[in-house]
Amino acid sequence: MWGQLIRHLSRPLPNYAHSSAAVFPPTSQSPMTSSASSAKARENFKKTICTAACLIIGDEVLGGKPFIVSIIPDWPGCLPLQTVDTNSPHFAEYCFSLGIQLKRVEVIADEESEIIEAVRRMSEKYDFVVTSGGIGPTHDDITYQSIARAFNLPLVLHEKALERMRRLSKPQQAGPNFDWDTPSDALTARLRMVHIPTDKDLPLEDQALFIDDDLWVPITVVNGNVYTLPGVPSLFRRLLAGLTDTASSPDTDIYPLVESSVAAYLTDLAARVEPKGVKVGSYPRWGKRRNTVTLVGADLEFLESLVPEVERNVEGRRVQREDEDDPEDVEEEKI
Hints:
alpha/beta
């Protein structure tokens, strides 16, 4: 009845020996051993889904910062810092439609320790866990690495995801002079998105689900019950719908990748301004041809001093609201 989701999680599996108690205290940072993690994943794969939890990851959702400076670069792509979360309400409707009890929704910052603690706890307590956000190419996209560390797994290049990325991406969306075969900061940033948590003892096809022939990005599955999705609402909905073989929305956009063209600069900037209490963000604005870079901190004068530098390096301009630069006659690009 639940389509691909239920077939994936509740399908018959061999009677593997497994550990029945791999519990992490909320404050513990000690990872599972590899064998215990694999055994727990097999156990979770066999569970009937009764309960669910949703983990929204991203500073842009939390907001509540004293000052925010947004700069729109002149390259396609990205979403502003103060964002209204629509993914958890949609996930609630999704669970209700399938008769699954949504027991918990949490919103946390882009902080590795918080992600590790939350994802371990939710995976242990609930049958079906969905995370949203933090899987892009920039320095603040740390969901994959955090989940990998939570379950003592390596990040491994997923060859199929890379092949799909290369095939489905348009060259112009990578920025000027980008070459897949030439080492560059932009290439390194892109490759971050196809290094996923991987358990060598489990079938690879069970750890990365490709929902749509037009999308290169997979839904990754860790510990048998943690599903990692992008934070962009249209893409979140499209991939989630694919888990139950539901037709995707016709106006959903494909994942833009051009953040990677300035990822190296933003990473350097973030390191330089962190001692001053400033956080740098780069967020997708799906269906638009611009990205938003945000500077968040308590010292407005210092933030203002950074604006000319950021405008110059991302070839953009400061805006007062996120839709200020949206041209009505620009055709959406897809990759």
